[in-house]
């Protein structure tokens, strides 16, 4: 007969048996990774889950709860995270990509070679990913100017996230009270979305003089994207244009400059070229990058462009045949 208690088993096994209970994982994810919940709502929800699934005596959950202010997003609402929460998944994506092209049995040289190949593959992928948002616009679902402006400014993925909020602002939000004082309108917004219903109403402040809009859900601080409640208030306040102050550069199409490599080169302290020269170099890199970006989805046109560049190289070689090579000294 086995006399072992729970404490004799490694923690991970104790946890596994709880995590396999139907629905517990989803309930935990919903309450932990919830950008709209506040700290007291989190604690009530957490306790509800502990009671329902009989987890109150579990040491791991007790420990995790005791350090909740160190890892639960609801406790970081006053910090500008601007999408930091999503970074873990992006890192996982990077690791997966490198994992596809390397393995632990590689020698250093092999690893270096594959690493370089992977980086090149990623640059090519990035160029392709940059192409569509730069030169095409996705379908908009509303006739609002704001949605058009969002599609022009933001990357495709971020646009779809914001588009969801714009649509939800028309479908699930309505105002239950508006008060005005000192030039600030305070709206109490009800959100009927079943995913957020549990967590109640939201308060949005709007200052017309400088188009400042803030919401108690603090989604902008957390993700860098305005929430549906703010879009609702902007529409009610007859604001037609997307307020530029809420365009987080990191989510825009042009966050990676086409001529970033040239720019870095020209910023190098070793380079003592004058400003005109630096500007000229940047322009040249920009023009080449621009052409490649525009042609990236058309292999035949890319080949023609490459041929033209090769012809130009021949001309350049001809023109510089008698010049002394540049040295670093
Ligand atoms: Zn909100």
TrEMBL record:
Keyword annotations: Metal-binding, Zinc, Zinc-finger
Limits of the SWIM-type domain: 202-238
Domain of life: Eukaryota
Molecular function as annotated in GO: zinc ion binding
Hydrolase keyword on record: no
PANTHER family per record: OS01G0519700 PROTEIN (PTHR47718), PROTEIN FAR1-RELATED SEQUENCE 5-LIKE (PTHR47718:SF17)
Name listed for the protein in its UniProt record: SWIM-type domain-containing protein
Organism whose genome encodes this protein: Lactuca sativa (Garden lettuce)
């Amino acid at each position: 007969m086995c006399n072992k208690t729970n404490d004799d088993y490694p923690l991970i096994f104790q946890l596994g048996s709880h995590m396999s209970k139907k629905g517990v994982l989803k309930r935990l994810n919903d309450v932990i990774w919830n950008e709209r919940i506040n700290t007291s709502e989190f604690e009530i929800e957490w306790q509800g889950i502990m009671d329902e699934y009989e987890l109150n005596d579990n040491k791991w959950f007790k420990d995790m709860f005791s350090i909740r202010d160190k890892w639960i997003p609801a406790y970081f609402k006053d910090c500008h995270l601007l999408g930091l929460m999503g970074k873990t998944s992006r890192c996982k994506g990077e690791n997966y990509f490198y994992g596809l092209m390397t393995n632990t049995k590689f020698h250093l040289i092999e690893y270096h070679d594959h690493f370089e190949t992977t980086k090149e593959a990623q640059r090519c992928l990035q160029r392709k990913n940059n192409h569509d948002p730069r030169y095409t616009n996705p379908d908009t679902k509303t006739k609002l100017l704001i949605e058009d402006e969002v599609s022009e400014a933001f990357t495709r993925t971020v646009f779809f996230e914001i588009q969801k909020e714009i649509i939800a602002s028309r479908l699930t939000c309505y105002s239950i009270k508006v008060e005005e004082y000192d030039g600030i309108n305070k709206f109490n917004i009800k959100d009927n979305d079943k995913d957020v219903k549990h967590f109640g109403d939201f308060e949005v402040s709007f200052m017309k003089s400088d188009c400042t809009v803030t919401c108690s859900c603090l989604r902008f601080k957390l993700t860098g994207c305005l929430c549906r409640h703010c879009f609702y208030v902007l529409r009610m306040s007859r604001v037609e244009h997307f307020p530029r102050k809420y365009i987080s550069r990191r989510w825009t199409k042009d966050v990676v400059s086409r001529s970033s490599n040239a720019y870095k080169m020209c910023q190098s302290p070793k380079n003592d070229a004058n400003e005109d020269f630096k500007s000229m170099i940047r322009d040249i890199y920009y023009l080449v990058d621009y052409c490649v970006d525009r042609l990236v989805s058309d292999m035949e046109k890319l080949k023609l462009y490459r041929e033209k560049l090769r012809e130009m190289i021949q001309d350049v070689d001809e023109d510089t045949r008698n010049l002394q090579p540049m040295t670093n000294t």
